[in-house]
């Protein structure tokens, strides 16, 4: 194979093949491979699922069954900014639901979705470990606490 040909290989694909090879002979290789693939691509595109299916000889339909069963896996790309809204106990009792409602309204998307312009992805999560600041959201792992609905628009405006 010529060097020029090698240059055309997608580095993500190389990483994916490494992940497949690392796990394929293990017991229950699918979950670690999917986790690794999602780390590389940010989500699980159809062509990646097909490639994994070939690599470990598990039917595509079965892989989709696993991917849709576990909340940790995504079939669509994440927006430029990932908002995690906490609905753990402390945040819930201090008005977390109102925060969710306000952000959903502001961005016109529901939990798990991405805005059309790819600016935000929204995810409701359990406790993010900042209960003292409840109700809390994090955007790209940056925590914003003691929220009230009137603060939301100002916070979102800081993220392009
Ligand atoms: S319950 Fe929300 S940060 Fe702990």
From TrEMBL:
Binds 1 [2Fe-2S] cluster. One of its GO terms (molecular function) is metal ion binding. Coiled coil: none annotated. Keywords: 2Fe-2S, Iron, Iron-sulfur, Metal-binding, Ubiquinone. Its cofactor is [2Fe-2S] cluster. [2Fe-2S] cluster binds at residues 86, 91, 127, 131. It holds the Pfam family 2Fe-2S_thioredx. InterPro entries: NADP_DH_HndA-like (IPR028431), NuoE-like (IPR002023), NuoE_dom (IPR042128), NuoE_N (IPR041921), Thioredoxin-like_sf (IPR036249). Belongs to the complex I 24 kDa subunit family. NCBIfam families: PRK07539.1-2. This is NADH:ubiquinone oxidoreductase 24 kD subunit.
